[in-house]
Amino acid sequence: MQVKSFMFDMIRTELEDAVGVENVSTSEVDRASYTVDYFWLSRMWQDRGAEGPKPDIIVRPGSSEEVSKVLKIANYYKIPVHTWGGGSGSQGGALPMAGGILLDMKRMNKLISIDLNSHSITAEAGMIFQQLEWYANEKGYSCMHIPSCLTCGTIGGALGHRGIGILSSKYGKIDDQCMSMEVVLPNGDIINTLPVPKHAAGPDLNQIFIGSEGTLGIITKATFRLFELPKVMKHHAFLFKTMKDGLEAGRDIMQKTQPSIMRLFDEAETVSIIKKIIGFEKRGAFLNLSVDGPDERLVDIQLEIIKEICAKYGAEDMGSEYGEKWYQNRITFFYPDHIMDIPQMFGTMDTVADFGHVEEIYWAMKNAIESNFPGVRFIAHCSHWYGWGTMIYDRFIMDNPPEDKEEALRLHNQIWNTGVRAAMEHGGVINDHHGIGLKLSRLMKEQYGPAFQVMEGLKKALDPNGIMNPYKLGL
Amino acid sequence: MISQNALHHAEKCRFCFMCRHLCPIQLQTGKEINTPRAKGLILSMENKGTAKFDRDMAQTMYECLICDACVNDCATGYQPPLFIREARTEAVANDLAPESVMKLLENVEATGNIYGAEKPSFAREGKDVLVYVGEVAACKVPKMAESLLKLLEQAGVSAKVLENEPGSGAMLADLMGYVDEVAQEAKTLANAINATGLKTVVVLDSYDAEIMKQRYAAWGAEIHAQVVTATQYVSDLLKAGKIAPKASLAKKGACHDDDRLARTFYEFEPIREMAKAAGFELVEMFNKERLAKSCGSAVTLAYMPNIVLKVASGRWSDLLRTEAQAILTANPQSYLCLTQNVPEGKEVVDLYSALI
Questions:
Q1: What is the pTM of this model?
Q2: Nearest CA to CA, how far is A123 from chain B (Å)?
Q3: Could you read off the pLDDT of A391-431 as tens digits, one per residue?
Q4: Do B31 and A60 touch (CB under 8 A)?
Q5: Is the alpha carbon torsion for A143, A146, A151, A152 positive or negative?
Q6: Helix or strand run (H / E) with residue B185
Q7: How does DSSP classify residue B5?
Q8: Which residue from B minimizes the CA distance to A29?
Q9: pLDDT digits (tens, 9 = 90+) for A163-200
Q10: Structural domain count, chain B
Q11: I want to staple A401 with a disulfide (CB 3.0 to 4.6 A). Which of A124, A191, A260, A345 is the partner?
Q12: Quick check: is B16 in a domain?
């Protein structure tokens, strides 16, 4: 035991030398603050009075060079490294399941440049995304990446799990918005992806590291596209008789116009969350959308086409009021007492599929969960749309889960396995924008089949000692 | 440990990540523990027996400016400072507070103020209003107090200042929570104010104004006079034409909304009126009014100067992204913090002095 302590202190000294004494901590309260992220299981574990996964040592680097030094040390001693940004991920991706080093990236929060010629902005990856957006807004621009976790997550976090914002239907996901990145590889080498995102110089390095959840390296800087802040944004709402009508209308809207926001709620969600937050009282499938642009004429003509499409599918035109209310309350949904919370058990399955499969997947998941797990409700909405399909933000909710924490954990995972397998069996993809993390790690091989060897090969080549974020992403 | 009400707030904050982008200390230190949710989380753990309230935990409870940026953000109305203040009470009661905090408490006990020195007197007789100078202006930024009094004199306002002006309790409340000693200070000051018989108290420091207006009544320390911030009072004098505006300085300045004007009183226009009257061409920092980033407070500067210097630098960086040459303030605590590390070519302007 004394030898272990002796060696631990030797390594600690090396880490202090790399990042400064004040940026290394082993205090109990510091370590405790990383035991819970937004993952339901970590919250439940804490709520039941159990100790969550703690890192052994916290390191707060201030530069890419310091990250490099830390990874070299970690690789030499084969110490696990978990990267933590805002810690607000819902998949357990940042939890320090293997102990070791926790790299808290938030000191790396500097703005590096704004290029108004190329319409791009570059910053360190530990910056909370809202800060980046404010820097862009100061100049009259926006990154147009406005997720619900805008104020919680870092740039690295958004990239690490392939995040998405509410304006994605027009402006794309984070992987569409990122132009280039600096990444520190597990061996400590600092690399840059190519300076622009479109080229014919082989596979896109950006897309290897985006979504890698800290398993292949650490993203330390990133450049994003900038968009001029829209001069006009108009909101509207419709009520469809069925989810099927709404899905078909949504498909036509995406193929003929370009809304920035479009969200279609099933009846179960319309009569619960939508009613609670914006006071909408009717039954059916509620759809709100927003169209923005530099000129009112462009916005108005799109809205006219959208109204025609919705009328074709028998929708009731609810006017602008509820669309505006949804937009005003878009963040309110996520504050305490407005969103599901412990002691409820809940999860968001977040499946993505093409239009040919999406309705079938919705019913398959709903039936699988509601028929196999008495007392579990299933609600859903489609909140991010593509020209070829959409995602289903499907949630299960159990008001009275087991009190015993192990029993609750097992039931939680059984529900997830059942729901996600139903999605995959009917042509859905395991996740659209929350990532894999610890939560879905076990299902990655089922999702990919033999194709997963490509990822395993990357992992083996880049991180032969397996130190980077163990147990995540199926790697 | 902390009250059930405070624990309820901690339990609600422990899993919520929404306000971390606004915490000035988190932004500067990058520590997860310096987020409101982490402080709520560890207090919840302490309550459940999985964490111990020790010196480290106490230390983290003091790494907070109580600037209310998190409170202002919360769509539901939860208040991290509520459990943080109560945790400070526990820290002091159990002799776990940082040494630098205990030193300030000793100073308060010995001299009535955190600086451990005799508070300079601005005592004078007057018949129109009572001016409450406060310990930060008196001890550290006397020119601001002198300028306010001179302005009032020029405007024909006869201002009284108390001899041996008692403390307001604001400092003590930040150091050890809303305890009996704070209520006792409040009663002493309320009695002294009421004894003057004057109908208006003009309060120079918005931190003092906050505790007087928001807390005193609950402690049975009602002030019979109307409590007015000095910024509002001077702005009203400007509007009434009792203070003559100056010619343009051809100098650009940006107003800093201090924590209490920004998030307790939502008072934004008076300092801008003062700035314009002083001849400044106004520009705005992006994070302004309710979203104004704190530059620190006098009490936090006294017990954790290194962190508050970083926090003040954060506010200066907001100014450096504008065309402003000066940051403008009418709060002695903001003035004190911002003057600790003025970037080259920039200046901090005390708006009362600028109006003379």
A1: 0.96
A2: 15
A3: 999 999 999 999 999 999 999 999 999 999 999 999 999 99
A4: yes
A5: negative
A6: helix B180-196
A7: H
A8: B57
A9: 999 999 999 999 999 999 999 999 999 999 999 999 99
A10: 3
A11: A345
A12: yes
